[in-house]
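Handout, section B. The chain below has 385 residues.
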Amino acid sequence: MTSTNQKKNWSLDTVAEIVGDLLCFDLILEIKRKMKNEEAKAYLGSFLRILAPVYVHEIANALDRLGIVSKDKLLEPTISKRINAERQLSAHKVIVNSNEATKAIEEMGISFARKVYDINIIAKNGILYDLNFESQVSPVEDFDFWNYLFCLPHTMLTAAFSTLSPDFSLQEIYDKSSSKLDTIAIQLDEVLSFSRYSYSAQKLFQHTVHLETLDKILILYRYRMITSINVLSKYLPNFQVTMGKRQIADMSLFLDKYRALIITIMGDELCQLDSSFANQIKIDIKNFIVDSSFFSLNRKLRNNLHYETTNILTEEERYIIRQNQMTYLSIFENSFRANLFIDIDKECEIMTGFSNAFRTSGMTKEELDRYYYFYYIKYRITGKL
């Protein structure tokens, strides 16, 4: 156990920060449970997969540090190791020159020089929303692990409410929010009703001869992370949870902290690149982020994730952070999209149907590769394998 003096370092502000973060995460997960569209649910799930290992790791460390509960009791060692690995991969790993990215390219057979249908894209109305490269680098194979990890925030919330004994219950919060969550779920089901297509990495970048391989890897891996925050912010901001006169959680502040994390991640990626593409992004950031206080303020907000001390920011500071966060992420989003070519033509639709038919056929990849042209012609003629 740690000393009583150490426990006093955990202020009421930090307790409120933890409870608010856990509740926002769990409310987004509750929205996901209410959604019907599988592609939309997968998109929201990818958003949560970056956050879950970060929050669980940091809160477990904070509880351990203050002697409330040891990390080994809260998380089995094998689970703790896996959580830390996922946290490193999503929030701390510089992906552009990593072994994980190289391995994923080899496994997927990605070619930037030849037109082969080597990636999946998720699109709607000609706009790209996601690619499957990120999920290849960090595959969702252990569903039990992710279900466990997604459920931990609710378990922690239940324990917190039991310990703090407020004059309202956790269930009351969910009951009060249920109607609003239903509305958001319906909106997201409609907005995120994407279609998945087989596509070519060569075609995706065919109009961007100046991009280097590392630039393309950055876009393939970080595209969804950059763009999804803007998509989801249209439906999740200004969603506050109050009980009486007491504010329990604020979704817009939660998303500000998530943006702060993304900006830190992308800053680390940029530091490893010296291409014309990356250098132009650096120039744009320098030209458009003119408030010199932004990066230190953004770091202060990001550091609240450690739950050691909570940096209290003024309304003016929050405004500076939010406005510049939007500008920073827009620079990346615009740079990414300006270098992509999306064209769902007849060939793309045929190859998508061919890939879907293969997935449902029970055929092995080895068998398909051996008789590829026979099966391809058969599908073109009959629509079946």
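Note. DSSP finds 18 helices and five strands in the chain. Compare this with the example in section A.
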